[in-house]
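Task: complex structure prediction.
Instruction: return structure tokens for all chains below.
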Amino acid sequence: MIIEPRASVSLLRSGLAPIWAVAGALALCAVLILWAGTPVHTAYWLLFKGAFGSAFAINETLTRSIPLIFTGLAAAVAFRAKFYNIGAEGQLYAGALATTFFGTGLVTLPPVLMVPFLMFVGALAGGALLIVPVLLKTRMKVDEVVTTLLLNFVVLLMVSFLIEGPWKDPMALGWPQAAPVIEQGILPQLMAKGRLHMGLVFGLVAALAVWAMMRFSVLGYEIRAVGFNAGAAEFSGINVGRTVIVTALISGGLAGMAGVSETAGLKGYLTLDLSPGFGYTGIAVAMLARLNPLAVVPAALFLSAVYVGSDAMSRAVNIPTYIADVLVGVCVLAVLFSAMFTQYKIRWRA
Amino acid sequence: MPVLEFRGITKRFGSLTANDDVSLTLEQGEILALLGENGAGKTTLMNILFGHYQADEGEILVNGQTLPAGSTQAAIQSGVGMVHQHFTLAGNLSVLENIMLGTERLWAWRQQTGAARRKLAALAEDYGLVVDPDAQVSDLSVGERQRVEILKALYRDARILILDEPTAVLTPQESESLFATLKSLTAKGLSVIFISHKLHEILAVSNRIAVLRHGAIVGTLPAAEADREKLAELMVGRKVTLPTRQPLAPGEPVLQISGLSTKGQGATVLRTVDLTIHAREIIGIAGVAGNGQRTLADILSGLSADFTGTVTIHGKPLAAGRPRAIVASGVGRIPEDRHARGMVGEMDIWENLISEDLRSDEVSRWGLVIDRGRAEARARRQIEEFDVRCEGPDAETRLLSGGNMQKLILARALSREPSFILANQPVRGLDEGAIAYVQNRLLEARERGAAILLVSEDLDELMTLSDRIAVISHGQLSEALPAGDRSIAQIGLMMAGQDSARQAA
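Output:
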């Protein structure tokens, strides 16, 4: 068996690759579903119906996709520069902490200013969390995977400390949660029913903005050049260290916005279960989107649908919701494989 | 009966035919040179012989017996030995251990060192290949390492030796001694295939020359009947005008280096380097890789600012450590490694052509947004002017051949008409046609009035292009003397660091 690079990669081939990958992942997970004792078509039909089968379901799927769009963009930007930010989870909570700090009474502005203000401070907090890891990487070559990953736990413990201690809301009947965000800071609902909020619009705007930055701006050029070939970027005069730092701040900022949007848009207050791992799932989103900022939106929608739909599926038939995690994991692997096969081909005979 | 015979070997990779009906014989006791440009199919042919690939058609006979296809073991057992361009030695093992590696039974109780040592000593004596069997390989010079590689093949009873670009890393003296070794090997009845694209070497060492072009043998001729022009023409398929340098009176000094030193230890540290390059002058720097060339090039191209001493261009200090400022001050840079430093393969051609002046008004607006229209228009002009063969400015750069990629680097470096050009190994790995193109472009720039610093490991190239040549060894740069003032042998000795040959500055 020999693996050879393809001479050229057609747009069609690279465009269809994620779709093939998702189909492959669904097929593989069908085995698990059969093992759990449910007919595959029933299970997948329930999953589909759970995600898109009603106005409520669609509303919920869209709502769930909002944080994934932000964390997916965070990973997509950083990974493009080969800065492996695994800390979007922590940066999300940093954004949520900033929202709670400024948004529960400290600052009061009219809603048109208050919401952007919270998004801004949340992004700052998310970016600030990456300053130490990125400086450690650019100055001392400390592996950012380790530092950003470990920071997640630090931040989570910090949140836990705050909402069980100094920031604990006395009105919350003893539940560990912070005071609610003031009315002016709450993201408006998009529909009369359901939980869908303005965060979706912000997410779409962010995706468009990141895409335009990557494609048209000098900064985007520099990020791509540094990621593809740091040696050549350096030779041509791009400040590699500075580019990585800026990339990290953007990435952290995007993840921080996810925290703002969840706190001020969905829940209204900070809790410890604000994110069921949106930061990590964001990596899967970015991989599924092959780091393309626009493709992050459908990728986030897809994964959100898998999670929402599998909840419904597990309620209806006897399949644990963990099938969603398995499905997502297999999807990511399949996408990575398919990405390889758009660049390479296998020949079975030498 | 030939000791080795290729019969109608054809190998296709998809639509590409790497070997097209190649038939070739190797007689006992001869040195057969296999000449061809990069991509002509030399390496593919040897990989088929060695069983790394299987031919689609044809067969290989060793001593009249068909060699089973696709088996490296069979090739070695039939007496074929290969010395690769990149040595396959373990630096932390001794010479003897390296040579024994892979020849022992896996489940033996202990190493049969005594027998191996005796066999190695006998081989070394027979063929005049003297190496200390207990020396650690990492302590050996490049020439000695190659000797170990050859001994390794002989230890496995090779009767047919294949050397792939063996002189790429050697000084002229080491090359000479390699040629002598090869001749003594063939005198003892061994047969050698010598793969190279350096014409003068092939003429010096081989008995017979086979030329490959686009995978097919385009000519086989006795070395005695060949000359450089004829071989170059066979290899490229058309007349190649070998570049010639017209004498020009040098102008005012452009680049002045005085007392340039870097901190640290080892051979790559610069020690009080002085050099002045004038307009309309090419200074060649000869030296074995790893003697400070890269340190000097990194300083001049803005990758490093860690030095003492002064470097000025037209009397103004070099913008040390700032590549864009250096480029803006009229410096054109051709990096040593076009893949690692020169081009971002995953990006488009037009994108690579703007990388040095990304924030200038010419290709961006307010230094923030890239003006793709103007960038592509400029790229189109450069592609045209430098004859880059590509589908257009928005083709992916990694798909270009080495020669075209180098033309792209030339386009980026030279189209601003720089007054000083740093050309670091500008023709390494290129084919004969591209080499002539690059060298002629450099000579044109010289005629236009540029000062050029040419760093090269190829003495022929230095002799052809340089007005003056300086030799670098252990970070010390000799005085730059007119190209004719020192013989190749003298330069070779200086490259090896023998001070007696160095003239006082």
